[in-house]
Amino acid sequence: MAFHDDVGCGCVRVVAKEVIADGNGRLSTAELNLDSDSKVAFLTQRLQDLGLDNPRIASEIQPYSINHNVAFGDDATRDCTTCHGPDSRVTQELPLADRMPGGVVPELTAVSGLLWTGEVQANDNGTLNFQPQAEAAGLYVLGHNAVGLIDLFGALAFVGVLLGIFVHGGLRWWVARRQVAYHPALKEVYMYDVYERLWHWLQTAAILLLLFTGLVIHKPETFGIFSFSYVVQVHNVLAAILVINAVLSLFYHLASGEIRQFLPRPRGFFDQAIEQSLYYVRGIFRQDPHPFAKTREHKLNPLQQMTYFAILNVLLPLQIVTGALMWGVQRWPETAVRLGGLPFLAPFHTLIAWLFAAFIVMHVYLTTTGHTPLAGIRAMMLGWDEVEVAQGEAIVESGD
Predict the structure, then answer these.
(1) What is the pLDDT of residues 227-246, one digit of tens each?
(2) Rounded distance between C-alpha atoms, residue 120 and residue 315, angstroms
(3) Which of 107, 183, 270, 326 would staple 395 via disulfide (CB 3.0–4.6 Å)?
């Protein structure tokens, strides 16, 4: 606060005399604080005497958007969990001032494109705080916010698949030990070429690592050993690899005609799907032959076609789109907001991730339903698969 004695009225000396409380002839920082009605009234009168109309104390607070790069250098924190964690600073009370001159509470200034997500609180001791209301404003912070119902549903789906595998696999093992082992005549067929295997394993590795890094981002307090910033960067790189691999794979399958492998034929599809389901429920325990012969032209049974169709044409595109919008929420905020913003995109992205995790576990288990438990994985690694010879003779051995 400055006072100018341009008119020679000596107001600086008068003000100093009025506000100096200890009588030492010097203005201290504490004495400059307008902490009494008498100081405010005195200064108001002096300013009116100088010709000012309606002098008064006014205070305002200007908002900054909640995003990265608000501050730089020593003022910026490198600990991402300061905000992206259970005790996010975004939701904590912020001290604004240790005094309120004249008891005036600052006004929240309206800024185009920004919304206030909290309110100013005046305390009894004269201090000011800003109390965020992040959840009421629909603010979603990765690593801090989570939708409990989404996580519960996803965890139940994942655990349900594990329990189903445990029961089904346990019954297969128990029944197999009490039956005569049945070995059909087999022949080797070059089932998967080099690119198919490369695409498959690269996509598998990318999805598994994306699931893990996504889990770290979702629950950073559980995986404190990992750097949040580093994991986010790895997650983004893996996502780019996944997208590029998917685009190249789509081109390959379209150009080669292999896309037909993943397209269920409408005619008789439901009857075939039921037949395949009955095999998994009943036939596999009786050592019945697979209802649909596996050939290079027909690698997938009806249930596999339906599952892959849903994964590759629904879940994967949705995961890519939601992930891209989450990555670009600061770059294209209007687009993200039209689709619900992070409060919708992040939980939906999490839900699809849970479904992917459940699918992978189920997929790995179903590879064990061949003539040997590792036959399917071996074929995807080497390209050669052993398939039953039509009308072949079986070699019968005694069971355990």
Answers:
(1) 999 999 999 999 999 999 99
(2) 44
(3) 183
